[in-house]
Specification:
globular, Thiol Ester Dehydrase, Chain A, single chain, two-stranded antiparallel sheet
Length: 136
């Protein structure tokens, strides 16, 4: 059972990461779905969503999934991140679905699939590892 729900995670993000306009859509055991609202600031020439915007959504989705499991640990940090861009994303919100594959005491490993809102075909796939600080 997750330790934090959607509302608690959204409040945590709004308090700790005010620069990050991520919306928490769903939390489930060992997973989360978030929305990255896309504005003109996230578009590159050609009207497609930029790679950094996709990376932000992927990283944030796994972070949210991990926090849902371990609670509000602000200093959990990304230690490895790999992404494959699969197709040109439409200039729509990005939906990122994260799944945790391993959650240990010090490391968490997961994967993230990203979609352009309204399209069932993924636009990117990422894997990442997070370092979890020792409990105080």
């Amino acid at each position: 059972m997750p330790k934090m729900n959607e509302k608690e995670l959204q409040e945590f993000l709004e308090n700790e990461f005010v620069q990050c306009p991520i919306l928490v859509e769903k939390v489930e055991p060992m997973g989360a779905t978030i929305r990255q609202p896309i504005t003109d600031a996230y578009l590159r020439p050609g009207g497609t969503v930029s790679g950094p915007a996709l990376m932000l959504a992927a990283d944030a989705a796994l972070y949210i999934a991990i926090l849902a499991e371990i609670g509000p640990v602000a200093l959990a940090v990304t230690t490895n991140f790999n992404i494959n861009f699969l197709r040109k994303p439409a200039p729509n919100d990005i939906i990122a679905e994260a799944k945790i594959h391993k959650l240990g005491g010090r490391l968490a490993v997961g994967e993230i699939t990203l979609f352009s809102e309204g399209n069932p075909d993924p636009v990117a796939h990422a894997t990442a590892t997070y370092s979890i600080p020792p409990a105080q």
